[in-house]
Structures are given as structure tokens and as C-alpha cells.
Design brief:
Protein name: ATPase AAA
Domain Sigma-54 factor interaction: 154-383
InterPro entries: AAA+_ATPase, AAA_lid_NorR, CheY-like_superfamily, Homeodomain-like_sf, HTH_Fis, P-loop_NTPase, Sig_transdc_resp-reg_receiver, Sigma_54_int
Shape: elongated
GO molecular function, one term: ATP binding
CATH topology of the largest domain: Rossmann fold
Largest sheet: 5 strands, parallel
Pfam families: AAA_lid_14, HTH_8, Response_reg, Sigma54_activat
Number of domains: 4
Number of strands: 14
Distance between the termini: 63 Å
Strand content: 5-15%
């Protein structure tokens, strides 16, 4: 049985019956219809690989013009459809014309079953090859930014990190959904990638989707894909991130920012393990490993009715909570030296030492931006340093951020603390959103959403 779906279009009932009885023994699905006017509906409701198209439909017609017209129409929908034309009138010139217009072969009626099977079998291999090439092209376009980035390994010897590493080793080989919790900059994406790298899906794609920077109007088209003509600028069929991540891992970052309607749409996809592209009505099966992350208190949001409890149950088979950097102080100098080596190499500088005084300064700092802030501080210090070592002056750390909890408000409310940090960053940079976002480890879009959320 060949894993391909065949559509047969002919105005002769006997031809349709004969084709269906024979082809269904060899192909996954055989769909038949009498009129090519049904093509649009059939292609939008079925996953078709090969189209067997008659060339004449009007009584007495034999010139094949109708077949050529419908061939062009099919290929205008998707140029990768594999179309085989068939006719009762042998005409070499017509066959050549059909091949030039995009048909892959030409069959005379009545056919020999062995010849028909051989032709369709070859066409099926061509279709699968085209689909693989197209998918690889889409993947390359969608993840070139992620591929360009070199992911860091998990670095640390502190008790919290050792515990997380032990958990990761147990969880990674499974397909369990994982929810990663932690403040901004604690390394949630790094842990997500490590889960993928140690999973059985490691040879397939790791797809990172930042839901925090994704416009709500683009949510469905980006994640689920769209069909040609689904909206004004939809000039071609496009698979969404879930389809592109098939057999791999999809990492949905900042899931706490999703609105309730979008949470419902995501839940439907996770429950059914299928996606439906915008502008289509057919379901497409997906096989992905789901990892999500957020810095928001999802359990509190469930209690307030701003996050769906059924979605939380679906995404958190296993929870990993990453500690803020000030709670793993013994890892600070390890991380600093790692970044020192990385950025010294990147900027072609011979800097191989952090002075003792600079090291003590790093240990005394509170690190509200966590590992990401430490990374930025060391990178900046490498750029600004004049000698072959990093000094306290090179670090340029804000004096307001020393002394641990003394610089923080007396509250354990995460939203209040987040509001304070956003407000402070904007004040520190005199309203410069780009710089404030960089200090907080956020995108400009994510910072604007928090400004709106907190009414700042």
C-alpha cells in the first residue's frame, strides 16, 4: 500500500468505478468526481497527492483544451501537485503540450492496470520528494535566526542546578509535556533546548516560538498556517510552526501572555493533535513534543480566571522551576568566566581574567535580570576593557542593585515586583524603551505590553 491519496476526475462513471476498484488496492485513499468544477472543494477538504485528470468533458470534444485549462488551474492552486492527464485520443503533440504546461505524465484510455500502477507509483515518489524539499525550504526560512544562534550549555554546580539537571536527564527521553517556570533571564530557553538535545527527537527540529512578541492577529496563521487566499496577503500555501516542527520539539515561550480565546485554540490543537490551516477545513495530524515557559504565576492566574485550568493541566505534565541567579550565588563566577571566554573570542580580545575585586562585586550584586543580565554585563565589559583583565570599573553595575533584598519592595506579589522593575528600568533610562527592554531582557513589544498592563 502506497502512502498517497489519489483524485480521479472523469465524466465517465465506468472509468471512475474501474479506477477506484483497482487503485484502492494500492493507494491509501482514492477520491473520484465527474466534474473538474469540483476541484477547489475537493482539494480544500482532502490531502491529495496525485491527480488523474481526463482531458475532455464536453460531448464530442477531443482536442484536450479542457484538460489543459484545468491542469493550469490545479497548478495555480499549488505548483507542487502531481497531475497525470488521460485521454482516449492518442496525440503526441497534445501530450508534449501537456508536459510543457506541468503535467508529469500522459496515459491513454483504456489503460493497462500494470502501466497505470507504475505511472502512479512513480508519481507518488515524485510528490513525496517535492513535499520534503518544500518542507525543508520552509523550515530553513522559519528557523534561520534560531539556527544562527549558538545555544549555551547549562552551567552551574549549585544544588538547585544539580537537581534540575537530574530531573532533565529523567524527563528528556520521554514525550512528556514540560512547563518551565522562572524569572526573565534565568535560562528557560537554554533548558528547553537541553531537553530537546537529550530527547529521542534530537535529530529533528527544535522550533522556538516567542508568544510574547507574536501579534494576536497573527497567532493562528503563524502557529497553524494558512491556505492561499485565506486573507489579502496569503499568496501561497504556508505551513504553520506546528507543522514545521513535526517529529521534533516545539517550544512556546511566554505562554502566560496568551489571551483566553487563543488559549482555547491552542488547547484544541493539543487535545486533537491536529491543526487546521486558515482558509481550509481539513485537519492535518501533528507529532510534536511540547515545551512551554513563562515567568508568570499560572496557578494564581487560574484562580483569577485569566488562564485556563484545562490548558495548564495539558502543558505541565512535568514542571521545572528555575531559580533566580541570586539564589545560586556559587554559579555566578562560573558563568562569568564562561561568558568571559565566549566574548573574548568573539571580539578577538586577549582578556582572560576577572580581578578579585571585580569578582566580589559580581557576587555582591543582586542580579534582577539574572543570567541574561550577567551575560550582557560581561559582554559590555569585554568591549569596554582597555587591558587584559576585567576590573570593577569595566562592569559598570548600577549601585542601586547591590545589597540583595534591601533594594526590593517589601512584597512577595510577583506582579507588583514586575511592575516595580519595569518602572525602575524606564526611569533609569529616562524613558528610552529600547534600553529599558534590553536591561530587563525583554523585546520592545513585550515591554510595551507590560507598560500597558501596569498602566505606566
Amino acid at each position: 500500500m502506497t502512502e498517497a491519496n489519489v483524485l480521479v476526475i472523469d465524466d465517465d462513471d465506468d472509468i471512475l468505478l474501474s479506477a477506484k476498484l483497482f487503485l484502492k488496492q494500492h493507494f491509501k485513499q482514492v477520491v473520484t468526481c465527474k466534474s473538474p468544477k469540483e476541484i477547489n472543494v475537493l482539494l480544500s477538504h482532502n490531502e491529495i497527492d496525485i491527480i488523474l485528470l481526463d482531458m475532455n468533458y464536453q460531448k464530442g470534444a477531443s482536442d484536450g483544451r479542457e484538460g489543459l485549462y484545468w491542469l493550469e488551474h490545479i497548478l495555480s492552486i499549488d505548483k507542487d501537485y502531481v497531475v497525470i492527464l488521460m485521454t482516449a485520443y492518442g496525440n503526441v503533440e497534445l501530450a508534449v503540450q501537456a508536459i510543457k504546461k506541468g503535467a508529469v505524465d500522459f496515459i491513454l484510455k483504456p489503460w493497462e492496470n500494470e502501466k497505470l500502477y507504475a505511472t502512479l507509483s512513480a508519481a507518488s515518489k515524485l510528490r513525496q520528494s517535492n513535499k520534503k524539499v518544500k518542507k525543508l525550504e520552509k523550515i530553513n526560512t522559519s528557523i534561520q535566526t534560531d539556527q544562527a544562534r549558538k545555544f549555551e550549555h547549562i552551567i552551574g554546580t549549585s544544588a538547585p542546578i544539580r537537581h534540575l539537571q537530574n530531573t532533565l536527564i529523567k524527563v528528556a527521553p520521554t514525550d512528556a509535556n514540560v512547563l518551565i517556570l522562572g524569572e526573565n533571564g534565568t535560562g528557560k530557553q537554554v533548558f528547553a533546548y537541553e531537553l530537546h538535545k537529550h530527547s529521542l527527537r534530537k535529530n529533528h527540529i527544535f522550533m522556538h516560538v516567542d508568544l510574547g512578541s507574536l501579534n494576536e492577529n497573527l497567532f493562528e496563521s503563524e502557529l497553524f498556517g494558512y491556505a492561499k487566499g485565506a486573507f489579502t496577503d496569503a499568496r501561497d500555501d504556508r505551513p504553520g510552526r506546528f507543522e514545521l516542527a513535526d517529529n521534533g520539539t516545539i517550544f512556546l515561550d511566554e505562554i502566560g501572555n496568551l489571551s483566553l480565546p487563543l488559549q482555547g485554540k491552542l488547547l484544541t490543537v493539543l487535545q486533537n493533535r491536529t491543526v487546521t490551516r486558515l482558509g481550509e477545513s481539513k485537519d492535518r495530524k501533528i507529532n510534536v513534543r511540547l515545551i512551554t515557559a513563562t515567568n508568570m504565576p499560572l496557578n494564581e492566574m487560574v484562580a483569577k480566571g485569566t488562564f485556563r485550568q484545562d490548558l495548564l493541566f495539558r502543558i505541565n505534565t512535568v514542571e521545572l522551576e528555575l531559580p533566580p541567579l541570586h539564589q545560586r550565588a556559587e554559579d555566578i563566577l562560573l558563568l562569568a568566566n564562561h561568558f568571559l571566554h565566549t566574548f573574548s573570542t568573539k571580539y578577538h580580545k586577549n582578556i582572560n581574567l576577572i580581578t578579585e575585586k571585580a569578582g566580589n562585586t559580581l557576587l555582591a550584586y543582586h542580579w534582577p535580570g539574572n543570567v541574561r543580565e550577567l551575560q550582557h554585563v560581561i559582554e559590555r565589559a569585554i568591549i569596554m576593557a582597555d587591558g587584559n583583565e576585567i576590573t570593577e570599573q569595566d562592569l559598570q553595575l548600577s549601585p542601586q542593585r547591590f545589597g540583595g533584598s534591601a533594594s526590593l519592595p517589601v512584597t512577595l506579589d510577583l506582579e507588583e515586583m514586575e511592575k516595580m522593575m519595569v518602572q525602575k528600568a524606564i526611569e533609569n533610562h529616562k524613558g528610552n524603551i529600547s534600553r529599558a527592554a534590553a536591561e530587563l531582557g525583554l523585546t520592545r513589544a513585550a515591554l510595551y505590553r507590560r507598560i500597558e498592563k501596569f498602566g505606566l
